UniProtKB/TrEMBL annotation:
Lineage: superkingdom: Bacteria
Keywords, comma-separated and alphabetical: Membrane, Methylation, Transmembrane, Transmembrane helix
Name of a matching Pfam family: N_methyl
Residue intervals passing through the bilayer: 12-36
Protein name according to UniProt: Type II secretion system protein GspG C-terminal domain-containing protein
Amino acid sequence: MPRFSAQPHRLAFTLIELLIVVGVIGILSGLVIVVINPNTQFAKARDSNRKKDLALISSALEQYYADNNAYPATQSGNSVSALPLAGSPKYIQSIPADPKSGFAYCYTSVSPYQTFNLCAKLESGADQLNGATTCTPTGAGGTGDYCLTNSF
């Protein structure tokens, strides 16, 4: 007849131990998601793309100015897509659009075309630069916008 010992052999975790570990992992993952907040991170990444796009367009505008001694006139509304910069490798290969909406950025230049305003609407409240408020017909240039002007 086999003899049973008073101490059972432990080959696995008990149900209570597993439930405690799963509960702790759930609480920690919930806290990490709240702290990181992926939607905010995606919005900040799109805002970074917007700023990079405006810097690229601004560089093309400065090259245009160097060749023509004036910035391009606003041809249809306040849209960057109407500027005579696209398709010319001399200035910019293609004019970028907003990464989320796909709409063109806001551009204004008033006669005699020696200054310009270039604006994008940011999603997050961080890093807002609002140097101009003249792009309001297309929804940019107000509170929460990032606007660039020429360096003169």
